[in-house]
Amino acid sequence: MSLFKINTETCKRDGICAAVCPVGLIELNNDVPTPVAHAEEFCIRCGHCAAVCPTDSFLHRDMPIEEMPPIPKDTLLSIDQCETFLRRRRSIRAYKNKAVNREDIQRLI
Asked: How far, in Å, CA of 49 to CA of 28, rounded?
């Protein structure tokens, strides 16, 4: 399998995968996502392309869909919650000299 494969039967051809690729390795040819030249070499394997596909039509060779659990609906933020979170978010510029619990780090990763 090349870097990724598209199920053309279910692909909505909306270009979301190409829009979210942080390295710009996906182009649309006749509205079908296609890797650019040398995509395998430059792909950072972040998984955004496969994760955002609403129909699970984007299959990344190094990230099987079985390993990408769906987001539980009860954990999704409402519009108001999301706006509140984004408006009140602050950058941290002074860090505490305190170790972070290893289990917390592993859970977040």
From this structure: 13
Longest dimension (CA), the chain: 54
Report the C-alpha gap between 39 and 95 in whole angstroms.
37
> Is residue 4 within 8 Å of 49, Cβ to Cβ?
yes
Task: Confirm whether pTM is higher than 0.85.
Answer: no
Q: What is the pLDDT along the chain (109 residues), one digit of tens a residue?
A: 689 999 999 999 999 999 999 999 999 999 999 999 999 999 999 989 998 999 999 999 998 878 877 778 888 888 999 899 888 877 777 788 899 899 988 888 7
Can you tell me the distance from the alpha carbon of 99 to that of 29, in angstroms, rounded to the nearest whole number? 49
Dihedral over Cα of 41, 42, 48, 50: its sign: negative
